[in-house]
Amino acid sequence: MTKLMRKKHQEDEEPTKVTFGGIMATIFFTLVSIVFVSPIIIVLINSLKDKTYINLETFKLPTADSFVGFENYKEAITQYDFIKAVGWTVLITVASVFVILLCCSMAAWYITRVQNVFTKIIYLLCVFSMVIPFQMVMFTLAGTADALHLNTPWGIIIVYLGFGAGLAVFMFCGFMKSIPLEVEEAAMIDGCTPIQTFFKIVVPMLKPTYISVAILEAMWIWNDFLLPYLVLDIKKYKTISIVIQYMKGSYGRVDMGAIMACLVMAIIPVVVFYLCAQKYIIKGVAAGAVKG
Amino acid sequence: MERTIKKYWPIFLLPMIAAFIIGFVVPFIEGVYLSFCKFTTIKDAKFVGFSNYIEAFQDGTFLHAFSFTGLFAIVSVILINVLAFLVALALTQKIKGTNIFRTVFFMPNLIGGIVLGYVWQIIFDAIFTKFDTALKLNEVLGFWGLIILVSWQQIGYMMIVYIAGLQAIPGDIQEAAMIDGANKIQRLFKITIPNMMPSITICTFLTITNAFKLFDQNLALTGGEPLHKTEMLALNIYDTFYGRVGFEGVGQAKAVVFFILVAVIGLLQLKITREKEVQQ
């Protein structure tokens, strides 16, 4: 309400007019934006060049000699199994985010509705885990995961649930404290079990928080390198980040063409997803910044 | 109601707790214990007291990583926050295309550190070969390369937080100041910045923790070269674990020191942002 009034007020005060300064600012930011996206464009252009030309003429457009079409992409897909890596990354990200949302929202509801020493300790441990750098637990976590045979894309979901629980529980609890108890009480008096109450009453109200948490956790898991690198059996399973690190870090000949193609294929899904879900992503990120 | 819910703990609480114990509690406790041990795998650990910590602080690369990370944190925090704040100020004015600019500036944030590191390595290498040098040959170039990379990645994110803060400042305060005859600069320093302190605190802490925890970008862009000179704390710990044999204990001790440093910053952040929330 106040926001609306303010907006209206500002419009009355300064009628929209095209000023000289405004045009200069638009031109300035257009140039800055072009510089901003240029690294990605450069990689995109180079992915269409023959690998021997990439290091020599990085900033030039492909010529008749250097243009190879989608040859590099073919190479990346056949030689480095990139599609498989995309598949594992999608599977791990989607499944882990789903499990995190489900288990952590349920746990957060329990923690906020049942107040005792035990739930308080769990909550504090979750907050504490948010500030732990991964290097603190990487060696022992990899050992534990190995001992429990969690070194597969299915097992790593449990690892992600455990390591990602802190942020999710913290954010869900923050929201649940603000929703009224009366509705849930009414539902339970009408004979709903806690499970029915949770899924029919609480889950629909949590929708915005679900979106925020899903975006934050998905961004983390999709881009994560070290955790899957140490936990997964990387002879069998590689994620996108692992394949790229492998190609670049491998001894002997580094295939620049295939690397360019992989970088492009790693960036494009993220950019497309971002452009589609921009509104939610920016909101989710802003919410995460304020909370965490 | 509480009593009925309480009986359902195996359904609501157990899956998360079980995973949390496997994924966090056990590795954390083991990690603290192992920092006092000599070991190559978890099973052959032998208690050695504080010797790992002493060795960690005698390690020149670790001390260098400390100062390198500290310097990196200072430069990146100032650069990112000042630029993000200025961009946020500009993009909340009446300029055509602000939504497109916001979209563009935020985008690099979503791309993974490893991917970004290699994208920039290609660009820097292409520039520096013209001057007969390379990112991996020169510590100073490596430092500024990392700064450019993280600024490029994080300015958009901080810009979003600052824009949210700017939009929350009530318009009538600005108006009152304008009627009282305050000019643009005075309004910026007397009205806008004091009202933006919560956002500034959040962004400062976020950039500090990001700087201290930086790993993927460091690994991909410079890999710590030349000779561990551009190695930051997280990468130095990783290298101690997996780059040398027999130094696992020292690596774990370094990790504990690192954890205490990051945790203190993080908890301080939580405390300060909480207080700010109460005030509002």
Structure explained in plain terms:
The complex is a heterodimer of chains A (292) and B (280). Chain A has 292 residues and is mostly helical. Chain A is 76% helix and 0% strand. Chain A has a domain of 171 residues: MetI-like fold. The N terminus of chain A is likely disordered. With 280 residues, chain B is mostly helical. Chain B has two domains: 33 residues; 229 residues, MetI-like fold (Orthogonal Bundle). Chain B is built from 14 helices and two strands. A two-stranded antiparallel ribbon of chain B has the order 1-2. The chains are: A mainly alpha (292), B mainly alpha (280). At the A-B interface, α1, α2, α5, α6 and α7 of A face α1, α2, α3, α6 and α7 of B.
Q: What is the helix content of chain B?
A: over 70%
Query: Would you tell me the structural class of the helices and strands of chain B?
Result: mainly alpha
**Can you count the beta strands of chain B?**
2
Mean pLDDT of chain A: 84
CATH class of the domain at 80-250 in chain A: Mainly Alpha
Class computed from helices, strands and strand pairing of chain A = mainly alpha
What is the overall pLDDT average of chain B? 87
Topology order of chain B in helix (H) and strand (E) letters: HHHEEHHHHHHHHHHH
Q: Quickly name the level 1 CATH class of the largest domain in chain B.
A: Mainly Alpha
Percentage of β-strand residues of chain B: under 5%
What's the architecture of the domain at 80-250 in chain A in CATH terms?
Orthogonal Bundle
Strand order of the largest sheet of chain B: 1-2
Q: Which regions of chain A have little confidence, pLDDT < 50, spanning 5+ residues?
A: 1-15
The total count of strands of chain A amounts to: 0
